[in-house]
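protein under study:
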Amino acid sequence: MYFATTPSMVAAVTGAGAFGFLAAGLDSSQKLRDGLRAVGAAFDLESGAPLPVGVGFFGFLLDKTEASDDPRLPVVLEELPKALWFAFGGDLGRHVAQVRAYGRNANIRLLYL
């Protein structure tokens, strides 16, 4: 999924009535932010409205990035995707707890896959 997905493809999939996912892969937080904003620009959304797309993460990569100087989850959560997908990690519950805490504080509802 990571090497095959682009923000324009995610927007096109969602625009066609499906649910597009952006693969986080090895992207930096800035590249993820830019990609999600590019997706959002394809839709006529009110300020602060959730993006009608999801972001997919590999848990084993999050274990490394979230402990680095460039954590991905806080940046992605600020862009308000409607869903997050976590796969292939030893302790995905740690990342889910972070997302739940953000959702409570931001008064938003997130879909977990």
